[in-house]
Amino acid sequence: GVSATTRGTQFSRGFKNHGPLHLSTYLTNFRVGDFVDIKASANVQAGMPFRYYHGRTGRVFTVTRRGVGVEVAKRVRQRMLNKRIYVRLEHVHPSRCREDFLKRVKHNTEARAAVAGKAGVKADFIQRVPTQPKLAHFVRAKKYAPEDLHAIPYELVA
């Protein structure tokens, strides 16, 4: 059936997390274009998403009284399809997937503004750079002499 293989793992509530949902679940405001994480809550069966969408991130395309419409990218064979599903509020959480990106954008605009007045200076330093290899250095063992490690021979005890 539709809820097959979800009983013990996917939709079940965590240890000591049973009982009614918090009021903040229902008071969260969602707007069109928001990123949301779909996480099925087992104590509300109505408006529960299909098990494939559990744990996926999508974008809100419509807001209704008790739920939201979420657009999720789904891989079907070789292509990505945008699937539109309607989910109740209990099964949706605001996503934190863009926090780092927005923080970086804010930092970059501030850095550009700081450099803007100076002539002949480019704001190239704001680009992300992968971690560089460590510099070469010598390892000195003043306190401890190097030890040779070798396997202990096996002795048969009779």
Note the main attributes of this structure.
158 residues, alpha+beta, 2 helices
SS element count, helices: 2
Helix and strand pattern:
HEEEEEH
Count of beta strands: 5
Task: Report the sheet with the most strands, covering strand number, pairing sense and barrel closure.
Answer: 5 strands, antiparallel
C-alpha-based Rg, rounded: 27 Å
End-to-end Cα distance, whole Å, is: 62 Å
Structural class: alpha+beta
Helical residues, percent: 10-25%
**Average pLDDT rating:** 89
The percentage of residues in β strands lies in 15-25%
**Low-confidence region ranges:** none
Shape: flat
User: Which strand order does the major sheet show?
Assistant: 4-3-2-1-5
Summarize the helices and strands and which ones pair or pack:
Layout: H1 24-27, E1 35-38, E2 57-63, E3 67-76, E4 79-88, E5 92-94, H2 99-116
Antiparallel strand pairs: 1-2, 1-5, 2-3, 3-4
How do you describe this structure in short?
This protein has 158 residues and is an alpha+beta fold. Helices cover 14% and strands 22% of the residues.
Walkthrough of the structure:
With 158 residues, the chain is α+β, with helices and mostly antiparallel strands. The chain is 14% helix and 22% strand. The protein is built from two helices and five strands. It has helices at 24-27, 99-116; strands spanning 35-38, 57-63, 67-76, 79-88, 92-94. A five-stranded antiparallel β-sheet has the order 4-3-2-1-5, with no helix packed on it. A hairpin with a 2-residue loop joins strand 3 (67-76) and strand 4 (79-88). The radius of gyration is 27 Å and the shape is flat. The chain starts with 23 loop residues before the first helix and ends in a 42-residue tail after the last helix. The relative contact order is 0.13.
